[in-house]
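Hi L., both proteins are below.
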Amino acid sequence: MKSRIAWSIGIVVLFFSVTGVYAEQEKKKQPILLDVVVVTAKKIDQPMRTGDVDKEITPVMTTTIEREDFEGKTENIAEIIEKEVGVQVRQSGGLGSFSTVSLRGASSNQVLIFMDGILLNDTSGGGVDLSTISLSDVAAIDIYRGATPINFGYSGIGGAVNIRTLRVEKGLNASASGGYGSFNSQKLNGFINHKLNRFDYLLSADYLASDNDFEILNDNGTQWNPDDDRYENRNNAQVEQINVLAKGGYDASDTLRLDLMNQFFIKDQGIPSWNNSPLTKSTLDTIRNIATAKATADDLTSAHLDTSAQFSYTWKEEEYDDRGGHIGLAKQHSTYTTGRLNADLFAEWMGDWQDLIGTVNYLHETYESDDHLGKSNPGDSRRDSISLGLQDSFFFFDETLIVTPAARYTWLEDKLGADTSIWGTTLEEQSRSDNYLTPQIGVVYGPLSWLKLKSNLAQYVRQPSFFELFGDRGLFVGNPNLKEETGVNFDIGAQGQWMLPVDWLQRLTLSAAYFRSDVEDLITRVYDARGIGKSVNVPGALIQGIEASAVAEFFDYFRAVVNYTSQDPKNESDVKAFKEKQLPGRLENSLLGRLEARHSGFTLFGEYVLETGMYYDTANLLPAADKKELNVGIAWAQGPWMLKLEGKNLNDALYEDFNGFPLPGRSFYASLKYTFSKKPNTKKE
C-alpha cells in the first residue's frame, strides 16, 4: 500500500512539473478553453443564491451531482454518491436500509451532512442515516472532501455533504412518476411548483416501499462450518416511507426575499435478526419534521452586503421495538426523541480583490429516551453551542492566485439529567463545557486558463456524542471522561478541463489529489466479555491516499467516466494487537468505470464497481469480500415522457458492508415519468 501511495504522489508531482515546463508553450498554442468546474453533471440548472458556496473560487476539492444524473432512478442518496472519488457508503441491506457515508477514510460520525445548509447530524451520534432523505426532493448534491467551506457553520474531519432540495422555477411546472422493481419495490412521486409575480410555492410528495426479501446465504453464525449454510430469503427487512416537502416564497423587493419550508418524513422498517429468523418482528420506526424560515437581504448599506438569516426547528422520534429480544442482548422497547433549534446568520462582502464571509450559528438540542418496559434510562441530555466563522478570499494577479484563510470559534455546553441506570445504580447529573478555535487555509492557483491547482490545510475538532458520553439502549456504557477528537487535514491536487479542437474527442476533464488526515484521541469502541460496549480514546489514526478522476466526451454520442480512490487508513493505537492495523469499515481501494451512449433521446449505460481491502474488526481478523459489481441501464426521453430501465449487480454476487447484513443480489427496476411545464409570458414579468 505504501508503494502505491508513493507512486500516486509521484504522479501528482509529475503532473505539476510537466504543466510548469509546458506552460509557456501552451500559452502560445491554446485550444478552445473553459473555466474549470469539475462536476458529474452535464448542466447546472440552479442559479446561485446568497449563502451558496462559490465553487469557482473555493479551494476545497468539490464534486457536484446534478438532478439530471439520477432523475427517475429507484435509488437512494447513498447509492448516488458512493460512485464519486473519495466517497465510501455502507448500507445494512436493501432499498431504504440504514446507510452512512465516509469521506477520505473518516467515519460517518466525522462527516457532516447538511440539507440546504441545515445540519442533520444529531448530537445523539451515530452518523446521519442517508436513507431518511428522499431522493425525489433533491436538486443537487455537493460533496466537499477534506476541508469545509465557512458557509457551513460547522466542520467535520472528513468533510461535508450538502443536499440541495428543489427550488422554485419560473412558470408552472408539474410532474408525476412511478416505478416498480425486484423484491416488490415501489416508488411514487408527485411534484408541482408555480411562480407568478412575487409569490411562489412548491410541493413534492413521494412514497417508497420494498419487501427486501432478496436471497441471502445464511451461515447460522458458524462461519467455519459450511455444512449448515443454506440459501433463503431475507426475513423482516421490509421498509415503507412517505416524504412531503412544501415551500413558499415571496419576493418583497429585488433585494429582499422571504422563504418558508417544511419537510415531513415517516418510515416504518423491519430489523432482521442475526440468524434471519422468520419469527423476528423487531422494528425501527422514524418520524422527522424540519421547519425552516429564511430571510435573504442583498445589497445592504453602502458596503453592498449580501445577508441571510435562517431559523429552523427539527423534531425527530425513533421507536425501537425488540420486545422479543431477537436483536440485542435483552428485550427492548424504547422511544428516542430529538429536538433541535438552529439559528444561522450569514453575511458576505465582495470587493475588487477580496471576498469576505462571516457566519454566526447557534444550536440548542435536546435528547430524551423513554423505556416502555419500565427499565430506567440515563436522564435527558442537552447541548448548546455557538459557532463564529470568518473567511476571507484574496485575489491576486487578476484572480490567477486565490488565498483563502478562515477560522471558526466554537463554544458548547453539555448537560445530562440525574437518573438510574438499567443496573439500578444512581446516575448523578453531569455537565461539561468546552471551547476551541479551528483555523484553515486554502490556495487556488490557475497557471493556465484550463488548469487549477488546489491545496488545503485545516484543523478540526469533533466533540463526543451523547451516545458515547452517556451510553444508550442498554448495550453501551457511557464514558463522560472522553476527550474530543482533533484532526489536521492536508490535501493538494489539480483539476484540468479541455475543449479539444478534434473531431473524435470533444471534452476531457482530469483531476487528481493527494490527501492526508492525522487524528488524535480517536474515539472507538471496546467490548467486555458480556458484549457491553464502551467508547474510549486511542492515540489516533493516520489516513492518507490519492483520488483521481477522468471524464471524456467523444464521437458526439459517448461519455466515459473513471473514478479511483486508494487510501491507507492506519490505527495508531498503543495496543499491540491494533497498532498499525487498518481501521475497520474503511476500504483500501475503490474503482468506478462507466460508459454512456446518447442518441435521439436514448441513453444507454454500463458501469463496473470494484471495492477491495476492508476489514470488519479492529484486529483485522475478519476481512470483507471484495465487491465486483456490474450495473446497466437504458433511458428514453421524448417530449414530456421519460422511461428508465435498470439492472443492478448483474453478476448476482453477495456482499456485506456490515458483517452479517447482506446486500441484495441481482435486481431490476423500471420507472416512468411525465412532466408538464408552462413558462410565463416574459413580457408581463
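That was the first. Here is the second:
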Amino acid sequence: MKHFILLLIIAAFFFSCTENRQSAKPVATLFDTSYKSAVFADTGRMEKIRLAFSVIDSLYKKYADSNHFPGIAFGLVVDGKLVHTGSYGYTDIDKKIPVTSSSLFRVASMSKSFTAMAILKLRDEGKLNLDDPAYLYIPELKNLKYPTADAPHITIRHLLTHGAGFPEDNPWGDRQLADDDKDLMEFIGKQISFSNPPGIAYEYSNLGFALLGKIVTKVSGMRYQDYIKKNIWEPLGMKTATYEYGDVAPDKLAHGYRWLNEKWNEEQLLHDTKDGSWGAMGAMISSIDEFGNYMAFHLSAWPPGNAKDDGPIKRSSVREMHHPWRFNGLNLNYTYPNGRVCPIVTAYCYGLGWTRDCEGRVYIAHSGGLPGFGSQWRIMPDYGIGIVAFANRTYAPMGPINMQVLDTLIKLADLQPMQLPPSNILEQRKTELVKLLPDWNNAQQSGIFAENFFPDYPIDTLKKYAKDLYAKAGKIIEVKPMKAENQLRGSFILQGEKANIEIQFTLSPENPALIQEYHIKELK
C-alpha cells in the first residue's frame, strides 16, 4: 500500500507539472485502423444495473430526509443514456409543486465545465491558445500588480486549473452573479488581491472562471451565455437550460431554501444580468433530463476510438478536460460509505475535478453550491456510468451521496471496468515468444527482438531462468489469454501442472514493434 501511495503522489506531481502544448492550428489526423478500443466484457451489465434502481432510490430518499432537503432530483447515466431518474419533495414549498426530472435547478459551479468546454472549442478552432496571457483578451489585466517580481502573467490555462494565484472565494463569489461586465472591469482596475504568485498552487477561484467567461465573449464576438447555448446546449438537446431564472416557467423553477432554526427559509434567487460576467462560474440552470445529455457526451469520449467525431467539441478535447492538470490533494484516510479505507489522490482538470483511489478507480466530477442550492455530477469513464443530483437547500452536499450510490452500484451489479483487447502485434509477439521458450533456440536470429534486447538480457541467463521455471511448472497445460496494458505492453500466464508462470513484455516504438523488455516469474 505504501508503494502504491508513493506512486499516486508521483503521478499527481507529474500531472500537475505537465502541460499540453497543443498548437492552435488544426491539423488533419492520420490513424491506424487496426487500433482496438476497450470494451465491456460483461454483456449483461444493464440488466444487473436495473436491479439496483430501487436501492439507489432508497439511498437518495434517506439522504434527502436526513439533510432537510425541500426537494431532490437525481439521474443515472449508463453507456450514453439517462437510464433512471428519481425525485422527492417540492420545487416550491408554499405551492406544493413536486420536483420532477424536468424541474430546473440552479446548478452553481457545475457551470464551470461548460465555460471550460467553450474555451477549448475556441482553442480547437485556432482562435486562442491556452498558454496565451489572459491580458491579450482582457487588457485591464495587463496592469495587475503581482505579488512577486518574478511572477508570470496569468494565462488562460492558469484560469482553467485554478492556478492564477487568486484566493479561494467561496462564498464571496456566490454573491457576484448579478454584477455586470462594467462591475468586473472596475473590480480589476482597483487591483486584485493575490494569495499566491500565479502558477505555483491550486486555489479554487470563481473569479478565474468569471474572467474565462469574459474571454469567451471577447473571442467569439457574442455573450458567453449565447455562445454556450448555441455551441454546446443546443447540439446536445439542452433546450430549457438557461442562466437567468426569469426565463424559466414558474411551475418548472426550483426555489432555493436554507434550513435554519428548524424551518425552511426561502433564499432570494440571484439574477444573471444581460451583461452579467460572473454567471460563467455558477449561474447555469438545468434539469436532470437535459444534464444527462451532457454527461453522456462526456462519457462518449471514452474509450478513444475511430467512431465519427461530431460532438460540440472533439472527443480528444473532452478527454483533455478530464486530465488531472493540477494536483490539489492526497487523503490517506479516505473512507468509502461502506467503511473501507482507501487512499485517494485528487487534482483539478479544466472546469472539473479528478479523483483516483487505491483500487485504481477514476472519478470525474464537479459540485455546485449557492444560497438555496447544492448539486454534483460524477462520472466513471472506465465503468461507463455517471450520477447527477440536485437539491434546493443552501450548499446541499451532494458529493458524499453520489459517491455512495456509485460505489453501491458497482458492488450490487458486480461492474467491471472496460478491458483493452490485445493488439494484433501483441498477440503475434506472444505467439512467437512462446515458441522460443524455454530453450531460446535461434532466438537471436528470430527477428522479433529489438536491438537492445540481448545486450540487456544475456542469452545464457534467459535460458537458465526459463528452464528452471519450466521445470517447476511441469507440463504446460494452457497458455492463457493476453492481458493488454496498452497497445504495446501486456502479460500472459502459462498454466503448468505444478505451478503457473507469468510472462510480461513490452514492445518498442519501431514499426513493426519488437520486444524490448521481458520478465518471467513464478506466480505464487
